[in-house]
Amino acid sequence: MAAADLSRIVKAYDVRGVVPDQWDEALAELFGAAFVQVTSADAIVVGHDMRPSSPGLSGAFARGAAARGADVTLIGLCSTDQLYFASGHLGLPGAMFTASHNPAQYNGIKMCRAGAAPVGQDTGLADIRALVEQWSDEGAPAPAAESGKVTERDTLEEYAAHLLSLVDLSAMRPLKVVVDAGNGMGGHTVPTVFESLPVTLVPMYFELDGTFPNHEANPLDPANIVDLQERVRAENADLGLAFDGDADRCFVVDERGEGISPSAITALVAARELAKHPGGTVIHNLITSWSVPEVVRENGGTPVRTRVGHSFIKQEMARTGAIFGGEHSAHYYFRDFWNADTGMLAALHVLAALGSQPAPLSELVAQYDRYSGSGEINSTVEDQTAATAEVRAAFESVPDATIDTLDGLTVTTPDWWFNLRPSNTEPLLRLNVEAKDSATLAKIRDEVLTLIRRS
């Protein structure tokens, strides 16, 4: 495996690629050895999702780690946030084998240090890649004088108990909840987490199947929640929940079958976390709704704005001691969960908020969904820099406009804002627009799209 091939699978925050074309069990074994060396771990925890290649890859990683002298705890099938729980609860570095919502032929590794602290390019991943490149060219390193032990442990019950200890569900009225697991790991975790709750659970696609026979396990794509929306209406359910493939993200649908913006969920959960931790700091990325910092301030908290991406959220959470963080992508981060993201905990907050009062979910979240938003609109643009410069030039003279470049280009006025940022991996520009009314939203959205799509 040459270095050029590794550059295609080692991303900013994880390893991800096609199996076996881009990586295989032999390479996974080297990653296990390199992970132990870079983290100086004498023990690690390893979990995997339901993809056909996951058991073999995670087993190979464990062999590589054990050969370097580290004891390995295999927790088997789990969600990504269950692996983070194990890392935090056991105080061990961890590795999760998943490619989230990518198609079946993909797999990957999300790695963390003890306490679920992320491993990215600047926090160890570049060093791990360099070792794997070296060993793939020169041969695997000599094994340690004494190999580590490999043992198995089921953490599902402990994971569920920890989450349930973080949310007061004692006043919850009975609810009917449709859950679309997308044949991903939500089908493994939801039954155990929900079993003690006053919930009538309507399961959809709970069969673990890494070929994703029903739809892609990415609930942010509207096409992938159509089945859930129809089922919520057909069942007269109180709400619907959709999890992605590794069940670390959760998307919410109200009783009408309408999708709820992750920004509104961020605001709702922020208000609840601030009730538990008065005066706390809440992190939000720069394309979440204006509603989020407004609600945080109204509830006595301090909002902190960051770039898009979980590494930036987690860094700011650690730096500021924030109690909670949310992103437009339906990632939700909790100080009480080692600053890691867990869609399941956010879902429990929604259940608690809905179940503790009589109104339907659509009415409950209206107070947190105050503006018109475009969602993310992608445009293929070869020269992203030139197109962005043209947009900036067109809006620089707008009265009362402020411009910042924290992450791409953000233009803000009293009545609207937009952010335009390039994809890190594709020739795309991503546009998000928000305004005080739908007519203004449409006007600004169309003006920006006209500029970038003629470039």
From TrEMBL:
Query: InterPro entries recorded for this chain?
Result: A-D-PHexomutase_a/b/a-I, A-D-PHexomutase_a/b/a-I/II/III, A-D-PHexomutase_a/b/a-II, A-D-PHexomutase_a/b/a-III, A-D-PHexomutase_C, A-D-PHexomutase_C_sf, Alpha-D-phosphohexomutase_SF
Single biological process term from Gene Ontology? carbohydrate metabolic process
One Pfam family in the UniProt entry? PGM_PMM_IV
Q: Name one GO molecular function term.
A: metal ion binding
Question: Could you tell me which residue ranges the Alpha-D-phosphohexomutase C-terminal domain spans?
Answer: 376-449
Does Phosphoprotein count among this protein's keywords? Answer: yes
Which co-factors does it depend on?
Answer: Mg(2+)
Keyword annotations from UniProtKB, A to Z: Isomerase, Magnesium, Metal-binding, Phosphoprotein
- UniProt-listed CDD domains: PMM_PGM (cd03089)
Highest taxon listed in the record's lineage: Bacteria
Annotated ranges, domain Alpha-D-phosphohexomutase alpha/beta/alpha: 9-134, 157-257, 265-371
- NCBIfam families in alphabetical order: PRK09542.1 (NF007088)
What family does the database annotate?
A: Belongs to the phosphohexose mutase family.
Q: What name does this protein carry?
A: Phosphomannomutase/phosphoglucomutase
Q: Which organism is it from?
A: Streptomyces qinzhouensis
